[in-house]
Design goal:
The complex is a heterodimer of chains A (97) and B (134).
Chain A (H helix, E strand, L loop, with lengths): L1 E5 L5 E7 L4 H8 L6 E11 L1 H15 L5 E4 L3 H9 L7 E3 L3
Parallel strand pairs in A: 2-3, 3-4, 4-5
Antiparallel strand pairs in A: 1-2
Helix pairs in contact in A: 1-2
Chain B lengths: L1 E4 L6 H14 L4 H21 L7 E8 L2 E9 L26 H9 L2 E7 L2 E9 L3
Helix pairs in contact in B: 1-2, 2-3
The chains are: A alpha/beta (97), B alpha+beta (134).
């Protein structure tokens, strides 16, 4: 299962399994982002290249207006995928305190 | 154990359910399970995307021999297409030049121990090896 929601602070919360079958659902939310936005990964167990693609597309679009996504609360396994993709060079990833 | 799945990205829920069940029985660690889920998803979606000309199911099997897990995906009735023949992507370039194409295969290459492609009688077969710690 995958879920995506936006809380009252404008933070995007993603949870479950972000795989290729969830691209349209996620894209509908990320397409509406127009300024710097935090994405909370706390409940996210899994992401593949399909999910990374949505994030990359959003980051590129936001960068044109000087904005970006800030990724937070990633678990170690998801963090490893970002590291292998070298997406740690492309995104600001906040480590847990 | 082998199972067939409809060649559609919507099959992924069933694919993951099958993998969860099989890997639970085979006592696979969470780290190895993540790598296997990702490898299967990336290779399966590649077959959905590029295995045109056939509506036959994709077969998926997992076999454990001691500390070695073998995963095999077979796409039936298709032309030859080796996803591993693609050039390695450059992950060091800046954001504006980064592309998503090839990223899935890059992840698979870095998360499993071996990948082999073979083609015979209209069937594309990808065999993935993941060495396990225990």
């Amino acid at each position: 299962m995958f879920s995506i929601a936006v809380n009252d602070d404008g933070e995007i919360l993603i949870a479950g399994r972000f795989d290729a079958s969830q691209v349209d659902v996620a894209d509908a939310v990320f397409m509406k982002v127009t300024s710097t936005t935090r994405v909370n990964f706390q409940g996210l167990d899994y992401i593949s290249s399909a999910g990374l693609g949505i994030l990359l597309k959003t980051q590129k679009r936001l960068a044109e207006s000087g904005h970006s996504l800030i990724l937070t609360r990633m678990n170690k396994l998801v963090r490893d995928v970002f590291r292998i993709a070298r997406f740690d060079l492309v995104f600001r990833i906040e480590e847990d305190a | 154990m082998e199972r067939n799945f409809k060649k559609d990205v919507k099959s992924l829920d069933d694919v993951f359910a099958f993998l969860d069940e099989e890997m639970g029985e085979l006592r696979i660690s969470p780290e190895a399970a993540y790598a296997i889920n990702l490898a299967v998803e990336e290779l399966f979606t590649n077959m959905v995307k590029y295995g045109v000309g056939s509506v036959d199911d994709i077969s998926l099997s997992l076999t454990r021999e001691k500390n070695r897990l073998t995963i095999q995906l077979v796409d039936h009735g298709v032309g030859m297409f080796d996803p591993m023949s693609a050039d390695e992507i450059d992950t060091s370039i800046p954001l504006e030049q980064r592309k998503i194409g090839g990223l899935g295969i890059h992840l698979v290459r870095n998360m499993v121990d071996d990948i082999q492609y073979s083609y015979a009688d209209g069937c594309s077969t990808i065999t993935v090896i993941k060495n396990l710690e225990h």
